Amino acid sequence: MLKASVESALNSQINEEYFSSYLYLSMAAYFESMNLQGFANWMRIQAQEEYIHSMKFYDYVIHAGGIVTLKAIKDPKTKWKTVQEVFEDTLEHETHITGLINNITSLCLKESDHATYSFLKWFVDEQVEELANATQILQEIKLIGDNNTGILMLDRELKARTPVLVNVVTPV
User: Fold this and answer.
1) Domain contains 168
2) Is 164 contained in some domain?
3) Which of 59, 98, 108, 162 is close enough to 117 for a disulfide, judged by CB 3.0 to 4.6 Å?
4) For residue 91, what are the CA distances in angstroms to 36, 41, 135?
């Protein structure tokens, strides 16, 4: 059975993961409007991954004997000035999510909730990858600068990203 503090933190994280999915879908729409299909593809896949993350938390709460309490999802940002600004926001958001995951992990240690701590280790590792990907793309965009040809080349590269198919349901 989950302690109330851990259950509350996990429910908040479900909301954060749903918001992440919504934010990345908004970024995809922005790129679609600019006809940058590769960037849009990358963000659509990112949105799908965040949805999967939310469902992992959702399933864990249920399997751990808790109650899922869904909250309203805030409106995401919809306009950016540049491709670089989108990825600056992406890196900032992933840094925020990393902090939240770390906070829940620390709470689990404080509450001696070893099962939830074990569950969260996957997310801790996943956030290292999320930060590395966002940082790499942002650095490439900064190197490209105002070179539209470079943006188009990176757009083609990002078009090759394929979704990772995983079982959404967390095994018991």
Assistant:
1) no
2) no
3) 108
4) 19, 17, 6
d(Cα 50, Cα 22) in Å, to the nearest integer? 9
* Average pLDDT taken over every residue of the chain: 95
Would you say residue 171 lies in a domain? no
**Amino acid present at 160:** A
CA 141, chain centre distance (Å): 20
Q: What is the CATH number of the domain that holds 87?
A: 1.20.1260.10
Asked whether residue 83 is domain-assigned, the answer is yes
Q: How many domains does the chain have?
A: 1
Position 172 confidence tier, pLDDT thresholds 50, 70, 90: very low
Structure tokens at 169: 């349901």
The residues, ordered by sequence, that sit 6+ positions from 43 with a Cβ below 8 Å of its Cβ are 24, 25, 27, 28, 31
Token pair recorded at residue 165: 């198919």
pLDDT value, residue 1: 85
Residue 18 structural domain: 4-159
What does pTM read for this prediction? Answer: 0.93
